[in-house]
Structure prediction request, 175 residues.
Amino acid sequence: MITDPLAHSYFKDCETRVQSMALVHEQLYQTTTLTSIEMPSYINELITTLLSAINIDLNGLTVEQQIEPVSMDLDHAIPLGLIINELLSNAFKYAYPDGSGTVSIILNRVESGCRLAVRDYGVGIAGTIATGESLGVQLVEALTTQLDGSVTFRNAEPGLEAVVEISACSTEIQP
Prediction:
């Protein structure tokens, strides 16, 4: 058992990252094609698992989702899932010290591919987010680079918004 609170926090962060990768494989095994992940159900499951793992009281936190019906291959779904995990984890843990607020996640098609936006309406961050400022920022930047995309962090008055744009956007979910 880990007794140091900081070490425990780091361990929990790693655990949720592993769980997000495991969810991709669970979703894959539930499909008939074994080649793509339906992002709406994957993201919904990811949010539920993440909230459970970090013991957030769901009565005080609202997660708004606008996820277009797209599917992605494993090469895109795993890194994007890890990005979502990281951005949501940080929003859940740091944006609302009192445990009450709203986080929105949007995944939609744009002309250049797909756009992911994760926004909280919480306390925000003083100043700007520097490249490589924290392990979380480094991880999001590295995974976005792996997807040949770009990431932008901005103070959103109130709160913080992260926008990830990737040029490859997989097909719409087939009925």
